[in-house]
Amino acid sequence: MLPMDPSKRNSFEQHICEEDLVIVYERHDTMKAIKMQKGSVFQNRFGIFKHSDWIGKPFGSKVLSNKGGFVYLLAPTPELWTLVLSHRTQILYLPDISFVISYLEIVPGCLVLESGTGSGSLTTSLARAVAPSGHVYTFDFHEQRATLARDDFVRNGLSSLVTVSVRDIQGEGFPEEFCGSADSVFLDLPQPWLAMPSVGRMLKQDGVLCSFSPCIEQVQRSCEALKSNFTDVRTFEVLLRTYEIKEVRMDGNGGGEGSPLGPFPRKRRQCLSGEGNNGRSMEQTTAAVMVRPSSEARGHTGFLTFARLACI
Q1: I need a labelling partner for 26 at 20 to 30 A (CA). Which of 98, 169, 307, 312 fits?
Q2: Average pLDDT over the chain, rounded to whole?
Q3: What homologous superfamily is domain 80-239+300-309 in, according to CATH?
């Protein structure tokens, strides 16, 4: 669960409390973030749900509507928040986020600088990674985006772990107050090479930088700028391939609905064989578990360039 602000009632409680943020799970591609308030209702195609019926239930509960439909009540983890947040900008998804946190070597207690904040998808995961004693300082040049992101972190109970500021890092660099104190720096900028000199001053000795860029030309210019003060420069592209798993009915020849490729390895379960009560021969069918690549798999998101500050 999210590391929440200790001054608020939050999802560290095993049961849902009033004012908690809850992820309402309808199906894998339909989820909503709802704040619990007595007297309020949530309405969808499954019926009407009263918040008062949800308060006091444990996270993960299956709850029924007035029509007998149901949803699940889930805790607002960073993984789920990434799927329900408002997209004010293009966001990073879980494959890139997990890779970034691992290669930036972020652990509890770290001080992390980020630019730009955007929709706050990565920032939320960074906050959990540095909790309970670390801190994330995130900067965005767009004041309205910064304000909306700050509001989201308050809703999620992360205000004690994240500080949002308005600043043009490309033009001004990071504030000098962080000079030599950052464990890690993350950049998501159109011209990240302009911020490299400032990053070199902010990082501790042996600190790590990550720059996210959608185009390879940006990567090339960034790597050129990293030559003077950084070492161990590496660029990655994270491509995730997911698979669909479902059970299909197979005929005696190994074919089946939705499977024009013919027989394939499968776990058989006999459904019907022999003669029926009416004396007619009935064809044998089996159930097969079919596995195939998902048609909705995401492709290229961006390039992740990592570099370590060279020790003097």
Answers
A1: 98
A2: 87
A3: Vaccinia Virus protein VP39 (3.40.50.150)
pLDDT computed for residue 248 by the predictor: 85
151 is in an annotated binding site: no
Q: How many CA atoms lie within 13 A of 23 on its CB side?
A: 23
119 marked as binding residue: yes
Please report, for residues 83, 246, 269, the alpha-carbon distance to residue 272 in angstroms, rounded to integers and kept in the order given: 43, 20, 9
17-26, 59-68, 105-114, 243-252: the lowest-pLDDT one: 243-252
Residue owning tokens 């908690």: 20
**74 has binding-site annotation:** no
Tell me whether residue 2 is annotated as binding.
no
Q: Specify which residues 138 forms β-bridges with.
A: 114, 164
232 is in an annotated binding site: no
**Was 200 annotated as part of a binding site?**
no
CATH of domain 21-76: 3.10.330.20
Q: Which residue, among 223, 291, 303, 283, has the nearest Cα to 261 in the 3D structure? A: 291
What's the angle, vertex CA 95, arms to CA 91 and CA 97, rounded to 5?
55
DSSP 103: H
188 labeled binding residue: yes
